[in-house]
Amino acid sequence: MGNLTLCVLCDNKNICRHLFDFNVCDDCIAGLRLFTEDTVVRLSKEFTPTQESKDYKEEIERRLKILDQEYIKKKIKLEDIRSKIE
Ligand SMILES: [Zn+2]
After folding, report:
1. What's the domain of life for this entry (predicted)?
2. pTM for the whole structure
3. CA angle, corner 23, sides to 2 and 70, nearest 5?
4. Least buried of 54, 57, 71, 84, by fewest C-beta within 10 Å?
């Protein structure tokens, strides 16, 4: 499966796959070095509970939330700068 769309990571119009709301080409997916399922299972088993997260799944949810908040902060800052440029 794949259709001709712009890859969000390299701007090339290659065959892209839809990956978690993003269109990404195969070259860029390879560059991401995504973990295998075996690796994720191992990391999950090896995870030591923390005050914030009782398990690996909760820890990943926590990291995704922080990442989203960081993205929003940076986006607001840059949009603010852009709005002040004339
Ligand atoms: Zn790409």
Report:
1. Bacteria
2. 0.79
3. 160
4. 84
